[in-house]
């Protein structure tokens, strides 16, 4: 078992807590856990208050146990069995050949696309704030590749790769970045506001924490459709991605509360890359272990090595499965790292080069590559073919974006309001407000 | 909708002037406004006089002499049913919830408690806890949740217990509610209604007496409406729910107990339309929400002094119904705006600018805008009274305008 590639590393040395090895955490409650609520029609918390919080005591106990398999962190019985087997034999890898190639392709797409974005930015093709996702691909791929088209994803300003993983064509994303009409939002959103109704990508939000309530709302719709509209097969799950800085924001806590209270089918995914622009997570947070904040609200809190796509995928399977079965939300903290600065305007001088080097050695793409070779899941040639294919795809996207037209003046006032009547047509057939500068109705996307 | 307006307007041209028909009727015969069907386009032509008499009887003495002949002419049995404004809102909400299962309500204490102003009383037992959702006290988040639900197919009605509390939700209302339709290139619509009571009450203190319609006015992408009577409350509630745009519906704390007789038949009002309260000739008085009643009280005095003011309840705070307002300005050439919002950056300020920009040539005098003082509402009753515009000030302003 290629244990070394996936063993979690310690946090920075100044951190006085014990090593946050993901294996030590019992992230998800087993089926008979006392905190699991019984289903009832009462829409509210049915837990009884208990003085000792079982989750933290269990975690403290488990920290001293000898480490189990370092590769996976899920406690559902099936996965545990699978893992104990794979501990001893190489012949039972976590993924199949097709899955492996899919994951690899998705991560390489994310990486190449972001690298191309940087190039285009410095060539003056795109402007403003562009936040790149290099290094964090495992989180996006690990989670989003498990979703159906109808499941929703809500992201932050670091959303290019979430869009790509969800299925938005690279052409549409690149055009959007160039500000052309063929972009996924007609050029009106930009880097930080990627939306796609077809792929159920609910954005792209510039203010941190702003998207979490929207994700909660999408999960609420899913529950509403199942229970009020009686669409029994509606088990759509919503994923909310956000960072460590957001975890100190009020909207995060408020939504954790509401999601746990109503058992909404949502997974809160924290991409803890330890830095909020120049603010280290440890300097901003009283208790830096974000996963702990889940049990405080009555949902499982999981910590996972976010540089390892397979570990993320296993945790994601469990969390998404929980949500689909109606068991409620999960908080998943992914320890990850962004190789570039916060945005393309960030000189990235504050971060310790040693830290950067340490995480660079855990590059998720190289790790997956190594895993696949060692488990004979793919050959060098296959992976090279994928690399080439992605390069061509990204080149094509840039070409497409370059050749696309810029928005016309007439687009400026379109789509301010959804109602196609514009504003109250008066009896004379013209807008009641008689001010054509105000809005020009709606337009097909 | 436009067709309905046309039909109704055309069907009753005489009654279009029928609000205060008596000593105005001869004037209406020559008025150019009379022929335009838009004025009484709300299907209340038969009941208009009854409305006014009932409302007038409850609140203010009638502004014109008698309406005896009209009351008799409308028939012995009174059509429609009488209710209070909060009941009208509830009726509108209930009808829409029955009509469309995607309509849901969320807010603090809307469910089991029935709403702090009883607007949602009885809805939770009827529709269930998920459709009438009691939220925790987290305005920003549950407003955002409503917006997320609206984006994914539901039609939420988000209640702020007081409009002032929605300041906490300003992030979501401004960034997401208003902007997402545009920012997503038209892909997602947000058919949410955000409603709640605002305005100055009876010594509720500064933070519960905020007049903040204008805070939301600049947000691109949302529509603002303010209701003032049970009739228009129900109609606007229904229209707001049916609209694909995000709508902010401003109610007023002191108007919840207004009683009026409204039609039994279903009706939906036009969100962007202003209401002609009292046609006139000398001056146009533009107002909304509670100030409408202060204006009507002042009109009583003005009529006795021989003035003939035209009173329009603008109802739609964004966008302004410049069509109705414009026609009125073209007729009277004098404009007085009476509002409860604050002087600086208020609704009246932007309305003044809009009228000046569009109808400058038709104005014979400068527009006078009476707004409340730029102070946090004081607790003391006397101070609170002086914060707002009172009828004597309105009378004085009209006299000044008409010199």
UniProtKB/TrEMBL annotation, chain A:
Report whether Nuclease shows up as a keyword of the record: no
Give the top-rank taxon of the lineage listed in the UniProt record for this protein. Answer: Eukaryota
Q: Which GO terms describe its molecular function?
A: pyruvate dehydrogenase (acetyl-transferring) activity
Query: Its catalytic activity?
Result: N(6)-[(R)-lipoyl]-L-lysyl-[protein] + pyruvate + H(+) = N(6)-[(R)-S(8)-acetyldihydrolipoyl]-L-lysyl-[protein] + CO2
> What Enzyme Commission number(s) does the record list for this chain?
1.2.4.1
Q: Name the GO terms of the biological process aspect.
A: pyruvate decarboxylation to acetyl-CoA
Instruction: Supply the SUPFAM superfamilies for this chain.
Output: Thiamin diphosphate-binding fold (THDP-binding) (SSF52518)
| Stated name of the protein | Pyruvate dehydrogenase E1 component subunit alpha
The uppermost taxa in this organism's lineage are: Eukaryota, Viridiplantae, Streptophyta, Embryophyta, Tracheophyta
Automatic annotation (TrEMBL), chain B:
Localisation per UniProt entry: Plastid, Chloroplast
UniProt xrefs under InterPro entries: THDP-binding, Transketo_C/PFOR_II, Transketolase-like_Pyr-bd, Transketolase_C
Q: What is its EC number?
A: 1.2.4.1
Reactions listed under catalytic activity: N(6)-[(R)-lipoyl]-L-lysyl-[protein] + pyruvate + H(+) = N(6)-[(R)-S(8)-acetyldihydrolipoyl]-L-lysyl-[protein] + CO2
| Enzyme class, spelled out | oxidoreductase
Q: What is the superkingdom listed in this entry's lineage?
A: Eukaryota
Identify the SUPFAM superfamilies for this entry.
Answer: Thiamin diphosphate-binding fold (THDP-binding), TK C-terminal domain-like
> Which metal ions or organic cofactors does this protein require, according to UniProt?
thiamine diphosphate
Molecular function GO terms recorded: metal ion binding; pyruvate dehydrogenase (acetyl-transferring) activity
The main location is: plastid
Output a single Gene Ontology CC term carried by this record.
chloroplast
Give the keywords, sorted: Chloroplast, Metal-binding, Oxidoreductase, Plastid, Potassium, Pyruvate, Thiamine pyrophosphate, Transit peptide
Q: Which residues form the Transketolase-like pyrimidine-binding domain?
A: 83-258
Query: Known Gene3D superfamilies for this protein?
Result: 3.40.50.920, 3.40.50.970
- Signal peptide positions (record): none
Q: What is the stated purpose of this protein?
A: The pyruvate dehydrogenase complex catalyzes the overall conversion of pyruvate to acetyl-CoA and CO(2). It contains multiple copies of three enzymatic components: pyruvate dehydrogenase (E1), dihydrolipoamide acetyltransferase (E2) and lipoamide dehydrogenase (E3).
NCBIfam families reported in the protein's UniProt record = PRK09212.1
Q: Can you state the subunit structure given in the record?
A: Tetramer of 2 alpha and 2 beta subunits.
Q: What is this protein called?
A: pyruvate dehydrogenase (acetyl-transferring)
Q: Which organism is it from?
A: Coffea arabica
Give me the gene this protein comes from.
LOC113691065
């Amino acid at each position: 078992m290629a244990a070394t590639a996936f063993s979690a590393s310690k946090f920075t040395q100044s951190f006085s807590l014990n090593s946050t090895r993901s294996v030590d955490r019992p992230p998800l409650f087993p089926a008979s856990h006392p905190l699991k609520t019984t289903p009832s029609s009462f829409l509210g918390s049915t837990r009884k208050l208990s003085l000792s919080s079982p989750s933290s005591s269990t975690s403290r106990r488990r920290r001293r146990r000898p480490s189990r398999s370092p590769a996976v962190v899920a406690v559902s019985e099936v996965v545990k069995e699978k893992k104990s087997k794979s501990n001893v034999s190489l012949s039972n890898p976590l993924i199949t050949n097709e899955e492996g190639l899919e994951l690899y392709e998705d991560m390489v797409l994310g990486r190449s696309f972001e690298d191309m974005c940087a190039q285009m930015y410095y060539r003056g093709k795109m402007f403003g704030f562009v936040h790149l996702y290099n290094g964090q691909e495992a989180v996006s791929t690990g989670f989003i590749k498990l979703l159906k088209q109808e499941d929703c994803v809500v992201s932050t300003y670091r959303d290019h790769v979430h869009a790509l993983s969800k299925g938005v064509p690279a052409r549409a994303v690149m055009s959007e970045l160039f500000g052309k009409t063929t972009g996924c939002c007609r050029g009106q959103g930009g880097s930080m506001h990627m939306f796609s109704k077809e792929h159920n990508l609910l954005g792209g939000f510039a203010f941190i924490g702003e998207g979490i309530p929207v994700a909660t709302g999408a999960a609420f719709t899913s529950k509403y459709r199942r229970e009020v509209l009686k669409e029994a097969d509606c088990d759509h799950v919503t994923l909310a991605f956000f960072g460590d800085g957001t975890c100190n924001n009020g909207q995060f806590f408020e939504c954790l509360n509401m999601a746990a209270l109503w058992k909404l089918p949502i997974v809160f995914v924290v991409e803890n890359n330890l830095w909020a622009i120049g603010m280290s997570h440890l300097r901003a947070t009283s208790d830096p272990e974000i996963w702990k904040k889940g049990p405080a609200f009555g949902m499982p809190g999981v910590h996972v090595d976010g540089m390892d796509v397979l570990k993320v995928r296993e945790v994601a399977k469990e969390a998404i499965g929980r949500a689909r079965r109606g068991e409620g939300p999960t908080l998943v903290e992914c320890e990850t790292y962004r190789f570039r600065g916060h945005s393309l305007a960030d000189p990235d001088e504050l971060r310790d080069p040693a830290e950067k080097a340490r995480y660079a050695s855990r590059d998720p793409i190289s790790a997956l590559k190594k895993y696949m070779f060692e488990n004979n899941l793919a050959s060098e040639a296959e992976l090279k073919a994928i690399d080439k294919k992605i390069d061509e795809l990204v080149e094509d996207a840039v070409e497409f974006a370059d050749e696309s037209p810029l928005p016309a003046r007439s687009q400026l006032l379109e789509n301010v309001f959804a109602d196609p009547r514009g504003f109250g047509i008066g009896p004379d057939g013209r807008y009641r407000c008689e001010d054509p500068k105000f809005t020009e109705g709606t337009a097909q996307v | 909708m436009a067709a309905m307006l046309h039909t109704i307007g055309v069907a009753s041209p005489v009654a279009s002037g029928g609000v205060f028909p008596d000593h105005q009727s001869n004037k209406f015969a020559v008025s150019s406004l009379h022929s335009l069907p838009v004025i009484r386009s709300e299907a209340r032509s038969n009941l208009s006089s009854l409305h006014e008499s009932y409302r007038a009887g409850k609140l203010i003495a009638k502004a014109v002499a008698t309406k005896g002949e009209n009351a008799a002419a409308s028939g012995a049995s009174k059509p429609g049913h009488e209710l209070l404004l909060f009941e009208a809102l509830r009726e509108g909400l209930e009808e829409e919830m029955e009509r469309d299962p995607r309509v849901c309500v969320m807010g603090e204490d809307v469910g089991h408690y029935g709403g702090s102003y009883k607007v949602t009383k009885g809805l939770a037992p009827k529709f269930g806890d998920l459709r009438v959702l009691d939220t925790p006290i987290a305005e920003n988040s549950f407003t955002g949740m409503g917006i997320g639900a609206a984006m994914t197919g539901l039609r939420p009605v988000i209640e702020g217990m007081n409009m002032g509390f929605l300041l906490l939700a300003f992030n979501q209302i401004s960034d997401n509610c208003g902007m997402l339709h545009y920012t997503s290139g038209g892909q997602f619509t947000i058919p949410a209604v955000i409603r709640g009571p605002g305005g100055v009450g009876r010594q509720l203190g500064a933070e519960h007496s905020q007049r903040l319609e204008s805070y939301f006015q600049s947000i691109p992408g949302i529509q603002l409406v303010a209701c003032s009577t049970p009739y228009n409350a129900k109609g606007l509630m229904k229209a707001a729910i049916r609209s694909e745009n995000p709508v902010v519906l401003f109610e007023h704390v002191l108007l919840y107990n207004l009683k009026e007789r409204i039609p039994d038949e279903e009706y939906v009002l036009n969100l962007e339309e202003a209401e002609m309260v009292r046609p006139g000739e000398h001056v146009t008085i533009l107002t909304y929400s509670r100030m409408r009643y202060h204006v009507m009280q002042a009109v009583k005095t003005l009529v006795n002094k021989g003035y003939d003011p035209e009173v329009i309840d603008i109802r739609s705070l964004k966008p302004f119904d410049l069509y109705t307002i414009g026609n009125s300005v073209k007729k009277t050439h004098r404009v007085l705006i009476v509002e409860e919002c604050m002087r600086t950056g208020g609704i009246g300020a932007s309305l003044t600018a809009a009228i000046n920009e569009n109808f400058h040539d038709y104005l014979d005098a400068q527009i006078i805008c009476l707004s409340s003082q730029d102070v946090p509402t004081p607790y003391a009753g006397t101070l609170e009274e002086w914060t707002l515009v009172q009828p004597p000030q309105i009378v004085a302003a009209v006299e000044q305008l008409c010199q």
